[in-house]
Amino acid sequence: MLEITVLETPTPITVEYSLPLKSGKIINVSARRLMRWERETSEFFMQKVDKSGGHKNVLECATYFAEVISEGLLWDKEDHIQQLAELIKLGFILEFDEAAIGFLMKTKNLQIFLEDEEFLSSAFPSC
């Protein structure tokens, strides 16, 4: 995730899916998304966030961001995706404030291990 490229677009991202049925018929569906992570190409696409829309827009953005990140990181561990998404969503809403995140982790009985601290320090030396 450290090598990911983030690309921002002013317009919604359209995702298209095709489902071929046994009958030979193909169902095509398109959906608009605020964000999309292409793990194979390490690209994260996101629509420009409009925070002037109040709490609803912030919550919507936090929710989609958390889901995309969780699904991208834990694609092979589906039973943990929702739990990570909830933590990321709360972190996003709290603007990833270190003291608030520390309290949040404490209330969830979570901790950062020494090897995690070392990794974060080496990956983000200015933090």
From TrEMBL:
Question: What InterPro entries would the database entry show?
Answer: Auxin_embryo_med
Reading the lineage from the top rank, the first entry is Eukaryota
Per its record, how is this protein called by name? Answer: Uncharacterized protein
Its source organism is Fraxinus pennsylvanica
